[in-house]
Design goal:
Length: 381
């Protein structure tokens, strides 16, 4: 029997661990429209959990039900063992950080952060201590007397975070918390957010449509579509082992080949693909009968590209012509056209500078693509 102590940082793998947040058969209808469709979810104490999906998938509606701003049409929501269905928002052990930040423009930074504590009647000494501690944590002590219009976007974001955390909630709900920031600042703030969450140990639930953001921040991710969870797992599980074409296509990029299983052994599977026409060898068995139609997902970074032909013909290789190139500095993206006009995307790190400014692989070059037996994933749905 596994030792539960090995799962201290992965409580979802411990069958005896109690979820801190439990969503049980929850649905939400708005008239005839079902926004959230009979979902179950367990989130554990101290997790930084992301609800990921496109617009209209139901992720924000679920977050609002956790906050108490919406009531489930059916099902139950438990936080720390207490049913929250009839608990109003102001009595729940949660706080919410909104996408717009909703800072009071006429108040200073310190007064914005102190606002909730003053409303709840905390003493002046405790308010000052809590506000000072929180501003130090988000590195805004020197900006305490400024007003929101005197701050950058990243500083406003940290004020909103400090205000949400100063009351020491058990759960912090974040609705697209980094959407208003530019790319470089967003990447920097992701790591700041992770560090603050780790220091405080507060359970974070983040709603986002940004795949990279969810992958960077999260202990686990729930991918949502049409009100349901398509897959729940760690970033590695979601990316490397997608359970459907929808998840494979939504998280990062994937080349998708359709074919049929022509050989299924205990330690391997061979798929005959029609587009492109090739055999794909996968180094693990599947509980799928031979002749069954499947799709094979292959990530662009797992494909090798070369102008030299392989030593011998084998599975997991095709020949084509470079149709498009995007040079992005650290990597290049190639779109290679195969004989049947299928386009395969390949990403390759630029490990050395091009000689005389010329690319090693250029437009219209004939190239060979190959990949390892462990690189592709077979999907039956």
């Amino acid at each position: 029997m596994p030792d539960p102590s090995q799962y201290t940082d992965r409580p979802w793998m411990d069958s005896d661990a109690e979820p801190f947040i439990k969503v049980q058969s929850v649905s939400k209808q708005f008239g005839s429209f079902t926004a959230v469709d009979n979902v179950d979810l367990d989130i554990y104490k101290g997790e930084l959990f992301s609800l990921l999906g496109g617009s209209g998938c139901g992720k924000t509606t679920l977050l609002r039900m956790l906050a108490g701003f919406e009531t489930p049409s059916s099902g139950n929501i438990f936080i720390d063992g207490v049913n929250m269905n009839d608990v109003p928002p102001y009595e729940r052990p949660v706080n919410m950080m909104f996408q717009s930040y909703a800072l009071f423009p006429h108040m200073t930074v310190e007064n914005n952060v102190a606002y909730g504590l003053k409303r709840e009647g905390f003493g002046k000494i405790e308010i000052k201590q809590r506000v000072d501690d929180m501003l130090a944590m988000v590195e805004l002590t020197q900006f305490s007397k400024r007003k929101p219009h005197q701050l950058s976007g990243g500083q406003k974001q940290r004020v909103a975070l400090a205000r949400a955390l100063v009351k020491s909630p058990k759960v912090l709900l974040l609705d697209e918390p980094l959407a208003a920031l530019d790319k470089r600042l967003r990447e920097q703030t992701q790591f700041e957010l992770m560090n603050i969450q780790e220091q405080l140990g507060v359970t974070f639930v983040v709603v986002t449509h940004d795949q990279e953001e969810a992958m960077t921040l999260s202990t686990r991710i729930a991918v949502m579509d049409t009100g349901r969870f398509m897959q729940i797992g760690t970033p590695t599980e979601i990316y490397e082992f997608p359970e459907s074409r929808l998840v494979a296509n939504f998280i990062g990029n994937a080349n998708m080949f359709q074919g049929r299983i022509i050989e299924n052994g205990p330690d391997h599977v061979v798929v005959q693909s029609k587009q492109p026409e090739c055999e794909i060898y996968i180094d693990h068995g599947l509980e799928i009968q031979e002749g069954h139609k499947v799709w094979v997902a292959l990530r662009p970074e797992k494909i090798k590209i070369s102008k030299q032909a392989p030593d011998e013909a084998r599975a997991n290789q095709v020949k084509g012509v470079v149709h498009d190139i995007a040079y992005l500095g650290k990597i290049s993206i190639y779109r290679v056209k195969i004989d049947d006009d299928t386009l395969i995307e390949v990403t390759s790190p630029n490990l050395s500078r091009p000689k005389d400014g010329n690319l090693a692989i250029d437009w219209e070059d004939e190239v060979y693509l190959s990949w390892e037996a462990s690189s592709s994933v077979v999907l039956s749905k």
